[in-house]
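Bit of a strange request maybe. I'm writing a small parser for structure token strings and I need a real example to test against, not something I typed by hand. Could someone generate the tokens for this chain?
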Amino acid sequence: MAHGDSPKTILIAEDSSVIQSLTRKILEQQHYRIVVAKNGNEVMRQIESQPFDGVLMDINIPMKNGLECTREIRQHTDAAIRKLPIIAITGNAHNFSLAQFQEAGITDYLPKPLDFDALVRAVRQYIG
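Reply from user aminoacidic:
Good idea to test on real output. This should exercise your parser:
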């Protein structure tokens, strides 16, 4: 699509409504279209129901965690879904190694508390 045509759509997978609404507000100011999912099952349902340009994935979402969702996305039968940029957001990065993130197929990750400038930079870099 030509630049400026329609906004990129980002799925935010985050079960904290405070962080979810803050993240959404910040990205909407940057003219992204936002869809939210509160748990891993919703993430997969959303991803299969409409096209996305990228995912902000909290690692600690309920039902299926962010790593499980990422693996499922990377193994999806749909190539467009498999290639989605996935930026993980993690409050306890020390519980996971970078190797685990890479093995799951995460594109990049941001620690919590979220630095919103870093978030916007990462989203622009990977999602455009």
